[in-house]
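Hey all, sorry for the wall of text incoming. These are the two entities for the joint prediction.
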Amino acid sequence: MPTPSTKGVDVTTFFATVDCGQRTGMGATRMTEPLQLLLAGGIAVFAGTIGSLVGVGGGLIIVPALTVFLGVPFKIAAGASLVGVIATSNVAGRRYLVRGLVDRPLGLLLLVATALGALSGGYVAALLDAQVLSALFAVVLIGVALHVGRSGDPVSRAAGPDAASLAAPYGRRTLAAAMGISTIAGALSGLLGIGGGIINVPTMCGLLHVPFRIAVATSTYMLGATAAASSSVYYARGQLDPLIAAPVALGIAIGAYMGSRLAPRVRVATLRLVFAGLCVVLAVQLILKLI
Amino acid sequence: MDPAASGVTAAVLRAGSVASIVALVGGIGLALTRPQLSLAVVPLQELPHQIVALQPGAWLTAGVAVLIVTPALALLATASEFAGVDKRSVALALGLVALLITSVVLAAIQN
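and here's what came out:
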């Protein structure tokens, strides 16, 4: 087994870039040092915390952060992020389910669309160059920054009363439109390694008049199967490295829990602006890497 | 809201979460405390042997595999909960499981 190489940590720069080592026979990148495990986990905790506070998934931060700051290849980072999405969904989705907040009949229906989209995205991601995916991710980050940076919670802006009961019945045409949008959410999930909740929740609230809390709960419940659909493709192609996915999965779960505990004590409006700024910084970093 | 919430799906999600967390934490702990052991990615067929040998890569691979499989098992549990209550949800849940399995098989064949 050849000895992997590792770039040393450059203490003169603010962000260290650490080479994640040689590619294994499966085409995955192997982390070479425990420090890299901890760094990836630390990034994931941060991403999970801020994502939970702002109401978006941690994948939006994890994928570019791993790519830009740790030098993880984009597709490996996306695969790891998908595992993190599954971990969050398994844990949080179960809590929502027990509380009776998940609309499973609706969730299963939309899940067909998102899973098909995710599978398509996963297959297409394997065909596309990583630079194309990075550029697409930068565009998505800018879009999210614009949404989140605006006043009010963009996800709940489309919501009706925060009731715990099922929404008013919706028509077939709106359901078809919702499934179409869910397919796009799934495709983005498979392509970029994000959860897709930032699309699913407004879709359920705006188009299907699902109360916000139920939309969040149902979306969280759906994300696990959506991410599982595409992550299995990543794994089969050797683009899902457990040595990076493991700390990411644990870190996101820890971060999401911390975020839920911190939420009552944080000024969310300020945090949204900080998050939007962070998205812009990461988008610029992704673009600079391409140049 | 949910006509068949009997707790089976929640139990499956909890079991999957606990099992994966144990494996992932164990793998990271082994990687940090016994860095001389192999961190190489482990093929699935070698997993049981490598887990017993306390190879960190095997534990991490197992944890990730359990994470990925848990949503599919939860869908099967959902199908069982909705059996006799909502045929459409049963069909959707089973169809989704078939979709997930098919995707893995197709991806493996193409490789």
